[in-house]
Write a structure and sequence with these properties.
Elements: H1 16-22, E1 34-36, E2 39-41, E3 46-50, E4 57-62, H2 66-85, H3 88-104, H4 106-117, H5 121-141, E5 148-150, E6 158-165, E7 168-172, H6 180-192, E8 196-199, H7 205-218, E9 225-227, H8 232-241, E10 245-251, H9 254-265, E11 270-274, E12 279-283, H10 289-301, E13 311-317, H11 318-333, H12 353-368, E14 372-374, E15 390-393, H13 400-403, E16 410-416, H14 419-427, E17 431-432, E18 434-438, H15 442-451, E19 456-459, E20 474-475, E21 478-479, H16 484-489, E22 492-499
Parallel strand pairs: 7-8, 7-10, 8-9, 10-11, 12-13, 12-18, 13-16, 15-16, 18-19
Antiparallel strand pairs: 1-2, 3-4, 5-6, 6-22, 11-21, 14-15, 17-20
The structure holds nicotinamide-adenine-dinucleotide.
The site of nicotinamide-adenine-dinucleotide (NAD) has 23 residues, from helix 8 and helix 9.
């Protein structure tokens, strides 16, 4: 398929993913059929799915086109009235059984995620639990879509504000969290009373389609949740142009986010975008070094670095710069690189060759400009999609790694002197998704947290996302929020109703 990265095959882990997939109890998870209007569509043409660690073909899936997307939009439109008419608790019960089924099939879903995405199996299992958590949480949040009554400014009038479902919604989802980025959007949309059509990334369709099987088993009615797989541009164009699709949610690169925002302008859709990040990770010299290194390891290397929350610029105060770099390098040296299905693997392959190329380009550029690269020797037998965890010390802001999102296991460490200086440097970037600050000084933590330009900030922690909190970015990192009551509001419209003339 023309939009999929071609890879050179690597013999090291040959057959590993296929042998795991052969043993899946749920054979239907591998059928690769799209779910449209309650029917499983195998498609006349098929696209291949590959194991990113080896380049081997592991499955094939339907290639849907404009005809299928139009069927899906029509089915969603038909399904909307009955779905919105259910009590929120009835919708919630269905979402809860869907979450329970995901947990029941966690191991099989995790194997699918690792086979097509590459992340270590332990992280894939965590993703399934994290993803099911959004369905579970929004199942109840739908019951709390409260409106308002407003003290009137007009004599003899009552003023109400209601929250009502927006209508048919669509989601374009990425390959780095192929399950959780679907449920985070769908949980909110369905709880709000809206049907959703999902177009997953072509690299990771299997886990999306497996989640769709479980939706059907949980009792999600035909047309309420649909998954359409195929070429991103071919499928997203009708979704953008159709007036029946009222809201679009996207997670992915800022570049594609801009294209979708522009496309959605024609029909003035409500758009929420979760785009790239470039998180600053700031370590002040008052903090316990081990704690900061542990945090930096988690913030940099989770999902093999392919995470929009990943620490991209690690700023360390001058007094502790050397000891931090030494301890960080030692911890990085312990990471095991390999196939995600191999027990003990910490860092898997990059899902896309383009991401591996970007990492190599950033490392070369940084070294050329004076950074010191610390990593294990390149192991050619691993295959082209693997990037060995690399620390770039003495990094500076003129290097690509400090300006562009890396999305891989490359850690740039930059020294700084003062609080004022580091806040200015951290904010001097068009991305504003997440940030991290390590300090044991309470007043400093409060001061810095007030001034950081980002949507999410961890103080002395690298783990802070989840269903009840708003996930999203400032500046070019996005528009809108997912998770939390704010995430539900993305799929709802406000209706203000004025009851006038009540005086007699
Ligand atoms: P991408 O933005 O191209 O892909 C994300 C989704 O958008 C996929 O479903 C893809 O099929 C779809 N898509 C791509 N081009 C499209 C188009 N023209 N019209 C409609 N849909 C389209 O991301 P990528 O190129 O796979 O990754 C590149 C970079 O994007 C990464 O290095 C990273 O910086 C960023 N990214 C961020 C996230 C995140 O969680 N915010 C996720 C994935 C990628």
């Amino acid at each position: 398929m023309d939009f999929q990265t071609t890879r050179r095959k690597s013999p090291r882990f040959a057959g590993l993913a296929s042998s795991h997939l052969r043993n899946l109890r749920r054979r239907d998870f591998l059928e690769g059929a799209a779910l449209i209007d309650g029917r499983w569509i195998a498609g006349e043409q098929r696209d291949v799915v590959v194991d990113p660690a080896t380049g081997e073909e592991i499955a094939d899936v339907a290639r849907c086109g404009v005809a299928e997307i139009n069927l899906a939009i029509a089915a969603a439109e038909r399904a909307f009235p009955a779905w919105r008419a259910l009590l929120p608790a009835q919708r919630g019960a269905i979402l809860k059984s869907w979450a329970a089924l995901m947990l029941e099939h966690s191991e099989e879903l995790a194997i699918l995620v690792t086979s097509e995405q590459g992340k270590p199996l332990t992280e894939a299992r965590q993703e399934i639990a994290y993803g099911a958590g959004f369905l579970d949480w929004f199942a109840a949040e739908g019951e709390r879509a409260y409106g308002e009554t407003i003290p009137s400014h007009k004599l003899g009038s009552l003023l109400h504000v209601r929250m009502q479902p927006i209508g048919v919604t669509a989601a374009v989802t990425p390959w780095n969290f192929p399950v959780a980025m679907i449920t985070r959007k769908t949980g909110a949309a369905l709880a709000a009373g809206c049907p959703m059509i999902v177009k997953p990334a072509p690299e990771t369709p299997l886990s999306a389609l497996a989640v769709a099987r479980l939706a059907e088993e949980a009792g999600v009615p035909p047309g309420v949740f649909q998954v359409v797989v195929g070429n991103p541009i071919e499928l997203s164009t009708p979704l953008l142009r159709d007036t029946r699709v009222r809201a679009l949610s996207f997670t992915g690169s800022t570049q594609v986010g801009r294209i979708l925002l522009e496309g959605a302008a024609e029909t003035v859709k409500k758009v929420s975008l979760e785009l790239g990040g470039h998180a600053p990770f700031i370590v002040f010299d008052d903090v316990d070094l081990d704690k900061a290194v542990k945090g930096a390891m988690a913030a940099k290397f989770a999902t093999s670095g392919q995470d929009c929350l990943a620490a991209n610029r690690i700023y360390v105060q001058k007094e502790i710069y050397r000891p931090f770099v030494e301890a960080f390098a030692a911890a990085i040296g312990q990471l095991k690189v390999g196939h995600g299905l191999d027990p003990g693997t910490d860092i898997g392959p990059m899902t896309k060759l383009s991401v591996a190329h970007k990492c190599r380009t950033q490392i070369d550029d940084a070294v050329r400009k004076g950074a010191r690269a610390i990593s294990a020797d390149e192991d050619a037998a691993l295959g082209v999609n693997f990037i060995l965890p690399t620390l770039l010390s003495e990094a500076t802001e003129d290097m690509l790694v400090a300006r562009e999102e890396t999305f891989g296991p490359v850690a740039a460490v930059l020294p700084f002197e003062s609080e004022e200086e580091v806040i200015a440097r951290a904010n001097a970037n068009e991305m504003g998704l997440a940030g991290y600050v390590y300090t044991d000084n309470l007043r400093r933590a409060l001061r810095v947290s007030e001034r950081m330009e980002c949507g999410m900030l961890g103080i002395n922690t690298a783990s802070f996302t989840g269903p009840p909190v708003p996930f999203g970015g400032w500046k070019q990192s996005g528009i809108g929020r997912e998770g939390s009551r704010h995430g539900l509001a993305e799929y709802m419209e406000l209706k203000y109703v004025c009851f006038g003339d009540l005086s007699n």
